[in-house]
Amino acid sequence: MTTEFTDWVRAHRARIEDWLAVHLPGQDLLPGRLHEAMRYSVLGGGKRMRPLLAYAAGELAGATAAQVDVVAGAVELIHAYSLVHDDMPCMDNDVLRRGRPTCHVQFGEATALLVGDSLQSLAFELLAGTLVCDDARDQLRLLRLLGEASGAQGMAGGQAFDLASVQSALTLPELESMHQRKTGALIRAAILLGAGCGKGVDATTHAALDHFAKAAGLAFQVIDDVLDAEADTATLGKTAGKDAADGKPTYVSLLGLRDARSLAQELYSGALAALEPLGNSAGRLRALAAFIVERRH
Q1: CB-based contacts of 275, cutoff 8 Å, min separation 6
Q2: Each residue of 273-290: pLDDT tens digit?
Q3: The domain 3-294 is classified under which CATH number: 1.10.600.10, 3.40.50.300, 3.40.190.10, 1.10.10.10?
Q4: Whole-prediction pTM value?
């Protein structure tokens, strides 16, 4: 990564962290324990990849950073809620997230359930309450996009598919279909939400971003599977090797490490090809795609 891009990433991670800290309810407000658990689950960790993608796409739309803050924050709140629920005993039953105890371990299962519910509601409350588009009708489309990406045809449906596939041998198309929902849908939403801010983008740019998002989202998951097999718990900040131990189908279990890495590179190439019509204006997104496939945690 170039110094300029590293500085951009650092600045925008700090920006979204500050925005989230301001808009999450304080623990001095009743019910304090719920609010404390919400802040615990969102703040102080994570790659913030989805907000970064939203900011980069927002630059293409000529949106202000303040406009993109709202969609970046909403997507990150949805992502955080999904992690809280995924970690619970009825789902993946994990005890470590971002290097510290998961929400249900720290605060109890009932509170963790309410944290996820509350973060999801807050995401839509904030996105509905702040005008981020030049045309208010476009904002309704963004709300619908986030709802679709989060629900039964998106992230939640992907998680249901994931739970049903334990100890199963999926084909590559079936695995891709699952992860297009579970991981890819929210990454796609982050990019298209960012691009929808301000005056938005034209149909050609929207189509290019959509193709990019689908390739980048799958690449993100492939690398997640590779890292789960290769990295240790301290590096990942979560329990390494858990997917294999739980009998979950992954790109590594299906293809092996070498071919999984090759697939990630193919998807990366496809993501870059999708951005070619956008020229230099998509430089941030190209750099983020490289970051996705080169990351170590």
Answers
A1: 208, 212, 282, 285, 286
A2: 999 999 999 999 999 999
A3: 1.10.600.10
A4: 0.96
